[in-house]
Amino acid sequence: MPIPKAELHIHIEGTLEPELAFTLAHRNGLTLPHTDVDALKRAYSFTDLQSFLDLYYALMDVLRTEADFTDLARAYLDRAAQQGVRHAEIFFDPQAHTNRGISLDTVIHGLTAALATSQDTHGISTTLILCFLRDRPATEALDTLHQARPHLDHISAVGLDSAEIDNPPENFTEVFAAARDLGLHRVAHAGEEGPASYIWQALNLLGAERIDHGIRCLDDTDLVSHLATTQTPLTVCPLSNVRLRAVPTLDQHPLPALMDAGLLVTVNSDDPSYFGGYVHDNYQALHTHLGLDATQLRQLARNSFTASFLPPERKAQLIAEVDAHPDPW
Ligand code: HPA
Ligand code: ZN
Hints:
Helices cover 49% and strands 14% of the residues. It is an alpha/beta fold. The protein has a single domain (5-308), classed as Metal-dependent hydrolases (TIM Barrel), CATH 3.20.20. An eight-stranded parallel sheet has the order 1-2-3-4-5-6-7-8. Helix 7 (138-148) runs parallel beside helix 8 (173-181). The model has no long low-confidence stretch (mean pLDDT 98). It binds hypoxanthine (HPA) and zinc ion.
């Protein structure tokens, strides 16, 4: 059994496997532009973040009903259980659905129907992180936060995702302040493709408590010192970074450098159906390609709970499970 871990950077829409995409398309009377599963898989070849996002948003069209969202989340949780996940803080992109006429109620009712059984079925605790699309207007993000107010029992945090370059965090200062006032945690994608200055903005203007990706912090030594001192977690996604060409190859991934700098690094899967692996596959790839040893992988698993929004007692309990686990692969 893989080592117990938390998954803190997972887009539920990015867990849509090709087979499920075809099943849902058929159920909803839709025709995908790809002839079959193999043809769709061949389209999973990306040159940058935008080339991935184009397919990611297009394929979401198959998600129409509550049952579709339930099936999506249930399939993810089944896989997560096999990968040793004990806690998942799950991103979803409301605007990607509401902007094509699917109500926020449909999305949240569908997802939470699956999340409600995951503790009993798999021993996985869950929460949702509502992400704003940074390539859409900030007014739309404010409207989305307003619409989400009846559902805040299921939502622990807000996040910021989608196309990073030329869409700086500073544009979302007001909506993040409003989220803070509602008692929500704040996280933000920054420094995936965008510059280190976007990480500073996420910290200083959005009050981000975790940085999603954050690998470009290494361009700014003051920022690295700051992240180390404050132990602000980074949710790093190695297989994603290689597939989207933020990093040329896995052997050149900066994760060891981030750990050596004393940062609170976690390993996550981002959009596993598109990037060739779920969270434990990422751990294993770090062992195979970067030579991370059992001690380092165990530290990454501990970090995943430390960096979570779980209460301190639950963190301590899960970290004790990590320590009691035999070798992490
Ligand atoms: N980066 C930014 N936005 C995203 C991603 C990502 O890797 N995946 C889904 N939305
Ligand atoms: Zn992401």
